[in-house]
Amino acid sequence: xxxxxxxxxxxxxxxxxxxxxxxxxxxxxxxxxxxxxxxxxxxxxxxxxxxxxxxxxxxxxxxxxxxxxxxxxxxxxxxxxxxxxxxxxxxxxxxxxxxxxxxxxxxxxxxxxxxxxxxxxxxxxxxxxxxxxxxxxxxxxxxxxxxxxxxxxxxxxxxxxxxxxxxxxxxxxxxxxxxxxxxxxxxxxxxxxxxxxxxxxxxxxxxxxxxxxxxxxxxxxxxxxxxxxxxxxxxxxxxxxxxxxxxxxxxxxxxxxxxxxxxxxxxxxxxxxxxxxxxxxxxxxxxxxxxxxxxxxxxxxxxxxxxxxxxxxxxxxxxxxxxxxxxxxxxxxxxxxxxxxxxxxxxxxxxxxxxxxxxxxxxxxxxxxxxxxxxxxxxxxxxxxxxxxxxxxxxxxxxxxxxxxxxxxxxxxxxxxxxxxxxxxxxxxxxxxxxxxxxxxxxxxxxxxxxxxxxxxxxxxxxxxxxxxxxxxxxx
Length: 476
Hints:
Radius of gyration: 28 Å
Strand order of the largest sheet: 1-2
CATH architecture of the largest domain: Up-down Bundle
Strand content: under 5%
Low-confidence stretches: none
Distance between the termini: 64 Å
Largest sheet: 2 strands, antiparallel
Number of helices: 21
């Protein structure tokens, strides 16, 4: 309520977060898991003095840096840009609550970048022992970044015993922290292995012996990752708050996707065991692409589910999905949603000063005296601020389609009982007059009942039959 709203037609601005964040996750998990795998494999190559393996790992490190450091940095900045615009209140809350955690993350991020460049650009010029140490410095720094960021995002799903008067560490060690760290640790190792498979399948296509070695050794990391994903995922589910379990159970798509993730993890594990681990030599471009697509699909689906079950919150029991603090809702319901927002109130003063009372607040009765066209315009403002976090007008989760064929009374009832109509929606945060104005806007955008689906005649025949039955006149 304290920030202007960033309106993205048809798509909704939070969907931009999902798009950019998912791409970034594909890269950031590789940055963590790839660092661990590279440090481990370089240490092994030095130990057995395998120059061919070292040469391959050097070539893969260049691919790794270009993707994780360069492209990963771009998408990382993109996440901050989009969350600041589309979820400013939640972003503010997470920065204030975890200010020391973010400071630590930035320190380890800088250390991670410096170590990555030294590891690659001083390859062959450093003593093997020093080179291995630099590799592990990168791996540990990247992993600490994963732990810090995962704890913060886990807090969004369940704040545990944290309250605003408690410190960061209470928020950090929330019920979801360790399950999600385990799951993401596994995902990072699994995804990193699939990147290596993809790279090696093309880079080593003329060197079957070295390709088989890379294939066999990488499969161990991948299987460990698949096992951790399964364990962490199961623990994640057990620790879900009741609202999240209800959201998961109430959305058939999420149920199907959850089953697919666990199935995909099991399939990948057995494919790795009976393929690259037990029978090296399977690796070819087609096989690598198949593995990679399955891994990307499973990772992206997991992120989608993790975000989806948070509803109706952005930060569990603290910030609602439409960027309102839980503590502010009673006041907004009493004095008005438009009165409660800096930008909404400024808009009303600039365009409809006649609706303000002597106390400087919007008068509900005066609001309802506006012409119908102006009520619709005010309703559009209410929709953008109150509803556009999850709904577009037409497009993604469009209300024009969701309210198709609804009467004005049905729309008004749902608006005033949002959390009762759909428990994964936040409650209505305005007055009765504002609900009426929003209803006018939604009614003006609602699509009609499709042709061929109008049952008025059938209903009339049923009513007539019922009347006859009541009088004992219906045919036997």
